[in-house]
Amino acid sequence: MGIGVNVSYCGWDSGYDTCKLITNQMKDSNQKPLTFPSLAKERTTSLIDKKELGLGQSFSKEKMLIEVQDKNDEWYDFMVGDYIVNQLESGGSNYEVNKYQSEEELAKLLAGLSTLYPNANRIYIDKLVTGLPIQHHRNHKKGMKERFEGKFKSKITARNGKEVTVRYTINDIVVVPQAAGALLYYLNQDNNADIMRDKIAIIDVGGRTTDGLAYNCGEIINESPFSSDIGMSNVFRAVSNNLNIDENLIRSAVVNQQDTITYNQEEKSIRDIVNKCYQELAREIFKATRNEWRDFISLINQILIVGGGAKLLAPFLKKEFGRIGIQAIPNPQLANVLGYLLRAETIYNKEQKE
Questions:
Q1: Per-domain residue ranges of the chain
Q2: Whether the predicted pLDDT of 51 surpasses 70
Q3: Residues 186-199 pLDDT 10s
Q4: What are the CA-CA distances from residue 128 to residues 64, 182, 251, 330, 346 (Å)?
Q5: What is the pLDDT of residue 48?
Q6: Rounded Cα distance, 260 and 269, in Å
Q7: Where in the numbering of this chain does the Actin-like protein N-terminal domain appear (predicted)?
Q8: Would you say domain 192-328 falls under CATH 3.30.420.40?
Q9: Residues ≥6 apart with Cβ < 8 Å to 262
Q10: Contacts of 67 (CB under 8 A, 6+ apart)
Q11: CA-to-CA distance for 324 and 262, rounded, in angstroms?
Q12: List of long-range contacts for 252-260, beta carbons under 8 Å, 24+ apart
């Protein structure tokens, strides 16, 4: 019969550079979120070809090889995450606003769940909270909810070498603005934070977009939410074009804060060009923020930086914003998904009491 797993609630952040996933079981056992590169690419080899090539290897975080059945009953064969980087594959990234509609995004979520529960052939999720950029939240939240709610199947190779069919049920999905998840996490972590009195703002530097919103006395300033189409992908692309090296390799090196990268049997220094691109991105973020918040930016006491680029960009943003306090919050790359988990927990517990 296999093993069934019931997940009460979880947070899922399919970022443009990194995917993050955490469940209530992981929270209860103090585990960190699962993270892996936000890459998925369809494979063209048949099942026989894969076995002949030795690709019928057991599923794991390093070998996310998965076939998924979408709602149209069609099967799609994907490689996901670290496997794409390790195989020196190009492509696999998606910077489109409606990327959630793609089979690749479904493959990332199902691969993440099966990585957490490799022995399960049935995975049930009651509440899943995820997020969208502020600019696109209102127009896309319904589509994203409809996309991922329901029943799905996958095929993976178990540790014993046999192919296993896994069935997934996602009961309810809640889609929130991305920066709101980070703020919820920050308030939960910092007992000294007083959003009811402070003029505080959040800037969420993601892969494709940078989101912002500002609060005054606990209320969102109506004209403050914005989303700009700039993010860490600008850095990845610029460095890749400058050095003529595949963007996936550059993304991995930048995220891991490497000073050099080996390509064509040659070790190349990337630190100077990466810092230059950081500075250019920080300048563009400042310009976008100043333009959106020109009526009140001088009144902001502090700006909290979250997202995948927070730690890397904070020193450069401090130079651009001058006297306004800039702080990268703890765990900035994980802040959104941990905030989603908190929101999912609140919703789940409320419904259990009703």
A1: 3-179+337-353, 192-328
A2: no
A3: 878 765 555 556 78
A4: 22, 16, 28, 23, 12
A5: 46
A6: 4
A7: 11-181
A8: yes
A9: 268
A10: 75, 76, 77, 78, 154, 155, 156
A11: 39
A12: 252/37, 252/85, 254/312, 255/17, 255/18, 255/308, 257/312
- What tokens does 159 get? 């540790």
Terminal-residue alpha carbon distance, the chain: 33
Is 272 in contact with 260 (CB distance < 8 Å)? no
Percent of the chain residues topping a pLDDT of 90: 48
pLDDT exceeds cutoff 70 at 52: no
Our CA angle for 235, 61, 179, nearest 5°, is 45
- Range 3-179+337-353: architecture per CATH: 2-Layer Sandwich (3.30)
| pLDDT, tens digit, 9 for 90 and up, residues 257-281 | 899 998 888 888 999 999 999 999 9
pLDDT for 206-224, tens place per residue?
A: 888 898 988 888 788 888 8
Same fold: 3-179+337-353 with 192-328: yes
On whether the CB atoms of residues 304 and 204 are closer than 8 A, the answer is no
